[in-house]
């Protein structure tokens, strides 16, 4: 009944070198063994109950930006994607062809951002993000992972960061940014390894690699706010985690252990993380659990919350406000993942005189389509994101503003691509950009 | 940062004080003459000297006789201040200063974009592309990671390894502080070159010489107590982990492993391993502790090899310490800083409720009191006493066998035990800290600690 | 036929209830044991307060984004489940059985109301069937199991209605009604109808995670 008029993933296959390579090495026996090992050996009641109680009611279809952007194409709906992947694997006991795995990998890695918007739509409480994550887990164990994100996972395992940054390159970026910032704030310091500091500031590796100005800005903000902070000199400084998204949970655990142990070793009170969403999910919600910690061995504070603290406690004073109208994008991993929608608004309103809300907004906001590792699958799949998030483009355009506040790296990447492709004439900003621009800097030369 | 001596590494290669207290043996104690009980003010004030733009966090020597800090001078250069003197030379950057147990002060320095190490103000003759990750051990050698012409390795007292590599990390030192090891990348790796990576580009170099075999990944090399063999975690494929000793992997593989450690008595290697979603301990590749823990890490042997210790989680979200696979009755959401007594029969650890309400646990018994922060416990050389630096509402003090010292510092350093006495009486602890701006050393006796 | 009917309303009822209750207990028990073994990193976050909050929300029509986005289903599913529940427990014919089996006097629906509810459930089954056939998003994910559970609910209602309206062979229809009703009961723990016993837990879990960990509404 089902697959006749919508052949789904089969008709939109995209060539990826590592998917091709991975699939070519598969046999039906191996697939069956790995599917069983994951669905029966690793997963348990949660998966079984989700599979059994998903009523196939289709209520979740309207939730997903992919489905909306493709005019309701059912093969992009949350349940449609589960049907083509996990539900099929469970139904067949893993007796599928290597070719099927290709399609499943493409769906799981590139057609779901694990954004959990569909949670708001499912009456039963099925967690599509969890299910698609397990599909990825199977693909990881089968060696069928898109090339670019697999390479990133390798970087994590080889260097404990996302961008192959060598130990000295990290330090060099900090020293360089400290030098630069002293041009503006002569007494500024980026304190390495300051034991007992109030917080450790951790970032994702693209910051030292490509976006060093973000480290500069953070250093200026913290320095001028007079807070007691530190950055680690050794691995553990990077909080990102593409292994969580490839399904390489063992590496995810290793990364998170490294990050938390660094904070423990430095005896800081808490960890403040830069404006990144996926890293927050990894540290706050996923990696800690894999390691057996129920909560967080060191409390985790996202930048949005930390900026809110600085502003409400008066540690940062504003010299001016950002006058152009802005709209607010809600990154899923800190909104649906941490409930920071109110603080994000308070901070944005403090900084900007004219805020235009999107519709839908807050925890119901649409995803950027970059998260969940999708943007990290690289150029072959860029079109998937662009076509898959026309909905976001329409939503952005409807605000009529030119500036989008988005406190997340992935969201920036994803939104910039959409803005460019749909010619929306907008640009994105981090809260850090705005604070840096608007704050008083008493220590400036 | 930590003033560790020859150190095993954490799961990912940061130097970390060893769980076993072998370190205690390597710590020279202050002169016997300096064990006179009572307070001695080393500097009534350590405020920045005139002409200095700023002064960074102070550090105190092990004997508590000197205090130092990185300072920025009037001409924008950086140097070290020791007591009221400064080093002659100034630099563009001075970083990672530390006192060695023998009293020398070392720091990483940079001038004109070139890096080197300064020992008591004297720099090594050569400069390098980068220097980081200072290590030191009982032999008194100063060791670091080095990058020269984009080649990576380690450097011992100014002598880089003969062979440098594409990359190096996870730096380690032998217990005697003479031999070095690191994870090295032996072949170049192109962009997104999955196949080369999967075939293996990493190995371990010991004193600069790489094992004859590469792996997909290698982490936490560690020496045996004869300073001879090296074990490390290795990944053979995306889902197969094991331990390799001198380059030879165990025949068995596991879904995951953590840092291995050598049995000092037999040379066997133990490492936590994962099986069916739980953690246990393997010895030379076969399961020694049944895999029934939600976590099991930081393994440590007693020096006689009779006991194997580790931090474990018998239930989800509930951690404790296990000796020979049997957990202490105590449990907390977080347990860290497992330290063994010199004979390895006793252990101390810290417990916290998500980084708050820290408690000290010795032999499974919780000391009274909860603290905002606690530091690694220190055993006395005789193994009978434990001292711990703790912090409460911004004030730092030291606990001895559960009893707080009568006074408090604004900043303290780890306590240092006096020389062992046969019966433990006459025992003294050196406390170092800053109080009301004054740098002080106190030789405290048990009477100085509140009942 | 009369013998079959007698058997169906007699011993078979007990068998059906035994299978239903035993099956439900076994399924819940074994699932819980499995969860304790494999899913502690989920079970550990169960929180009664947040679970109740989420359930209350989702038990209120149009109180969630999902309900608002699917108004027809919302009306249909609430009407369907409430009617079905009322009929199961309080249909006049069932009241007799409660009395017969347990000697308890159960309040029962007025005849007319029961008839209306029966028709309503049949129509709503028709609506669900229509969705499964006509709406691409539903059709694409519909499997035989979905038709089976719809049939398991529809057949007892249709037969009850026909028997009640004296259309066709009354004894045959009554027998079919009882048998199909018992089939539904017995199938409940073992088909997708098991959502009746499991969905409270999936809802509770989602509510707990979003309430306790993610500090965000799950509606
Ligand atoms: C705690 C009790 C129950 C809850 C929370 C519940 C919830 C739901 C939900 C959320 C749906 C999906 C929405 C829809 O398609 O209408 C559904 C569908 C359904 N339920 Fe239930 N239900 C419960 C009990 C029952 C019982 C006892 C039966 C019958 C014996 C039943 C029969 C059905 C059927 C047949 C459907 C499928 C409708 C379709 O084909 O789309 N439910 N239920
Ligand atoms: S992309 Fe988001 S809304 Fe779509 S299926 Fe995945 S988690 Fe659900
Ligand atoms: S809304 Fe929930 S139950 Fe309905 S099809 Fe989607 S995932 Fe399944």
List keywords for this structure.
heterotrimer, A: mainly alpha, Fumarate Reductase Iron-sulfur Protein, Chain B, domain 2, Rossmann fold, 3 domains, 21 helices, 51% helix, B: 451 residues, mainly beta, 5-stranded antiparallel β-sheet, binds protoporphyrin IX containing FE
Describe this structure in words.
With 445 residues, chain A is mainly alpha-helical. Helix content of chain A is 51%, strand content 5%. Chain A folds into 3 domains: 3-145, Fumarate Reductase Iron-sulfur Protein, Chain B, domain 2; 157-312, Rossmann fold (3-Layer(aba) Sandwich); 326-438, no CATH class. Chain A has helices spanning 17-24, 28-42, 45-53, 65-69, 78-92, 98-110, 128-142, 147-159, 167-184, 206-209, 212-225, 243-246, 249-265, 278-290, 303-312, 332-335, 341-351, 382-388, 390-399, 409-421, 431-438, and strands spanning 199-202, 229-230, 270-273, 300-302, 326-328, 355-356, 403-405, 427-429. A 4-stranded parallel beta sheet of chain A has the order 2-1-3-4. In chain A, strands 6-5-7-8 form a 4-stranded parallel beta sheet, with helices on both faces. In chain A, α20 links the parallel β7 (403-405) and β8 (427-429). Chain A is globular. In chain B, 2% of the residues lie in helices and 49% in strands. Chain B contains 2 helices and 42 strands. Chain C is an all-alpha fold and 219 residues long. Chain C has one domain: Fumarate Reductase Cytochrome B subunit (Up-down Bundle). Chain C has helices spanning 2-9, 11-38, 40-43, 48-58, 65-69, 71-90, 92-102, 111-134, 136-139, 144-164, 170-187, 195-213. In chain C, α1 (2-9) runs parallel beside α11, α8 runs antiparallel to α10 and α10 (144-164) packs antiparallel against α11. Chains A and C meet through α3, α5 and α14 of A and α2, α5, α9 and α12 of C. Bound molecules: protoporphyrin IX containing FE and iron/sulfur cluster (2 copies). Protoporphyrin IX containing FE sits between chains C (73, 77, 81, 84, 128, 146, 149-150, 153, 184, 188, 193, 195-196, 199-200) and A (55, 57, 123-124). Protoporphyrin IX containing FE (HEM) sits between chains C (73, 77, 81, 84, 128, 146, 149-150, 153, 184, 188, 193, 195-196, 199-200) and A (55, 57, 123-124).
């Amino acid at each position: 009944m089902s697959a006749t008029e919508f052949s789904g993933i089969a008709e939109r296959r995209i060539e990826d070198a590592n998917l091709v390579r991975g699939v070519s090495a598969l046999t039906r026996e191996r697939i069956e063994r790995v599917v069983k090992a994951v669905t029966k050996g690793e997963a348990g009641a949660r998966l079984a109950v989700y599979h059994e109680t998903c009523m196939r009611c289709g209520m979740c279809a309207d939730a997903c930006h992919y489905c909306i952007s493709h005019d309701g194409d059912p093969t992009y709906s949350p349940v449609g994607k589960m049907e083509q992947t996990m539900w099929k694997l469970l139904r067949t006991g893993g007796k599928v062809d290597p070719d099927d795995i290709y399609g499943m990998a493409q769906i799981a890695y590139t057609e779901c951002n694990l954004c959990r918007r569909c949670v708001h739509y499912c009456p039963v409480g099925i967690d599509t993000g969890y299910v698609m994550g397990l599909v990825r887990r199977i693909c990881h164990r089968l060696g069928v992972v898109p090339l670019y994100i697999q390479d990133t996972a390798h970087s994590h395992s080889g260097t404990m960061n996302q961008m192959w940054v060598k130990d000295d390159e990290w330090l060099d970026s900090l020293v360089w940014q400290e030098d630069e910032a002293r041009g503006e704030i002569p007494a500024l310091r980026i304190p390495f390894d300051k034991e007992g500091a109030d917080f450790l500031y951790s970032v994702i590796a693209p910051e030292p690699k490509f976006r060093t100005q973000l480290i500069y800005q953070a250093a200026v903000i913290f320095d001028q706010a007079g807070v007691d902070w530190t950055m680690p000199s050794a691995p553990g400084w990077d909080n990102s985690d593409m292994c969580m998204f490839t399904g390489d949970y063992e590496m995810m655990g290793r990364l998170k252990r490294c990050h938390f142990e660094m904070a423990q070793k430095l005896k800081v009170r808490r960890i403040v993380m830069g404006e990144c969403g996926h890293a927050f999910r990894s540290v706050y919600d996923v990696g800690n659990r894999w390691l057996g910690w129920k909560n967080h061995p060191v409390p985790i504070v996202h930048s949005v919350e930390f900026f809110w603290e600085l502003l409400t406690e008066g540690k940062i004073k504003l010299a001016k406000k950002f006058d152009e109208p802005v709209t607010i994008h809600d990154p899923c991993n800190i909104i649906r993942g941490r409930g920071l929608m109110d603080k994000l608004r308070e901070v944005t309103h403090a900084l900007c005189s004219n805020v235009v809300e999107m519709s839908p907004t807050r925890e119901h906001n649409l995803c950027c389509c970059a998260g969940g590792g999708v943007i990290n699958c690289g150029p072959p799949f860029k079109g998937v994101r662009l076509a898959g998030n026309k909905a976001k483009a329409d939503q952005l355009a409807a605000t009529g503003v030119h500036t989008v506040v988005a406190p997340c790296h992935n969201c920036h990447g994803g939104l910039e691509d959409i803005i460019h492709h749909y010619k929306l004439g907008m640009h994105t900003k981090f809260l850090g950009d705005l604070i840096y621009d608007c704050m008083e800097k008493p220590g400036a030369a | 940062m930590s003033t560790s001596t020859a150190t095993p590494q954490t799961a990912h290669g940061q130097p970390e004080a060893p769980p076993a207290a072998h370190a205690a043996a390597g710590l020279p104690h202050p002169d016997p003459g300096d064990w006179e009980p009572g307070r001695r003010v080393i500097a009534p004030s350590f405020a920045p000297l005139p002409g200095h733009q700023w002064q960074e966090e102070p550090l105190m020597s092990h004997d508590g006789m000197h205090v130092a800090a990185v300072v920025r001078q009037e001409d924008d250069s950086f140097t070290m201040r020791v007591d009221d003197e400064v080093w002659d030379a100034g630099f563009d950057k001075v970083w990672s200063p530390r006192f060695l147990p023998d009293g020398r002060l070392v720091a990483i320095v940079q001038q004109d974009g070139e890096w080197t190490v300064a020992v008591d103000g004297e720099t090594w003759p050569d400069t390098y592309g980068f220097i980081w990750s200072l290590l030191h051990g009982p032999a008194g050698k100063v060791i670091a990671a080095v990058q020269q012409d984009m080649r990576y390795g380690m450097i011992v007292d100014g002598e880089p390894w003969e062979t440098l590599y594409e990359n190096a990390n996870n730096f380690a030192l032998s217990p005697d502080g003479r031999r070095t090891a690191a994870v090295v990348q032996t072949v170049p790796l192109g962009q997104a070159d999955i196949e080369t990576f999967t075939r293996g580009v990493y190995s371990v170099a010991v004193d600069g010489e790489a094992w004859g075999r590469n792996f997909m990944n290698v982490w936490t090399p560690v020496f045996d107590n004869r300073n001879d063999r090296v074990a490390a975690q290795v990944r053979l494929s995306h889902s197969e982990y094991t331990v390799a000793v001198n380059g030879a992997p165990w025949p068995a593989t596991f879904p995951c492993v953590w840092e291995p450690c050598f049995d000092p008595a037999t040379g066997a290697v133990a490492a936590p391993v994962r099986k069916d979603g739980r953690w246990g301990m393997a010895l030379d590749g076969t399961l020694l502790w049944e895999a029934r823990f939600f976590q099991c890490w930081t393994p440590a042997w007693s020096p006689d090899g009779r006991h194997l210790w580790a931090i474990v989680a018998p239930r989800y979200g509930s951690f404790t310490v296990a000796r020979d696979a049997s957990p202490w009755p105590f449990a907390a959401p977080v347990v860290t800083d497992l330290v063994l007594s010199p004979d390895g029969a006793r252990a101390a650890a810290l417990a916290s409720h998500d980084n708050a309400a820290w408690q000290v646990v010795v032999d499974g018994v919780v000391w009274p009191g909860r603290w905002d922060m606690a530091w690694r416990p220190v055993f006395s050389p005789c193994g009978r006493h434990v001292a711990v630096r703790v912090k409460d509402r911004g004030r730092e003090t030291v606990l001895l066998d559960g009893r707080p010292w009568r006074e408090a510092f604004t900043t303290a350093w780890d306590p240092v035990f006096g020389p062992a006495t046969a019966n433990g009486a006459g025992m003294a602890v050196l406390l170092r800290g800053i109080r009301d701006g004054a740098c002080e050393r106190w030789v405290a006796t048990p009477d100085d600690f509140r009942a | 036929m009369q013998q079959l009917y007698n058997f169906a309303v007699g011993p078979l009822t007990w068998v059906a209830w035994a299978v239903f209750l035993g099956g439900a207990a076994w399924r819940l028990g074994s699932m819980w044991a499995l969860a304790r073994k494999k899913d502690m990193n989920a079970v550990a976050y169960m929180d009664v307060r947040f679970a109740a909050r989420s359930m209350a929300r989702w038990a209120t029509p149009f109180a969630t984004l999902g309900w608002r986005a699917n108004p027809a289903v919302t009306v249909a599913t609430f009407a369907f489940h409430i009617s079905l529940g009322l009929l199961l427990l309080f249909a006049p014919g069932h009241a007799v059985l409660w009395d017969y089996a347990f000697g308890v006097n159960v309040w029962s629906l007025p005849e007319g109301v029961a008839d209306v509810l029966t028709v309503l459930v049949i129509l709503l089954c028709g609506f669900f069937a229509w969705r499964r056939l006509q709406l691409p998003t539903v059709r694409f994910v519909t499997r035989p199991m979905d038709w089976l559970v719809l049939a398991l609910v529809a057949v007892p209602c249709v037969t009850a209605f026909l028997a009640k309206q004296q259309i066709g062979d009354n004894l045959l229809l009554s027998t079919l009604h009882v048998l199909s009703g018992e089939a539904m009961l017995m199938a409940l723990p073992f088909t997708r109808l098991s959502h009746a016993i499991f969905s409270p837990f999936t809802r509770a879990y989602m509510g707990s995670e979003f309430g306790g960990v993610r500090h965000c509404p799950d509606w």
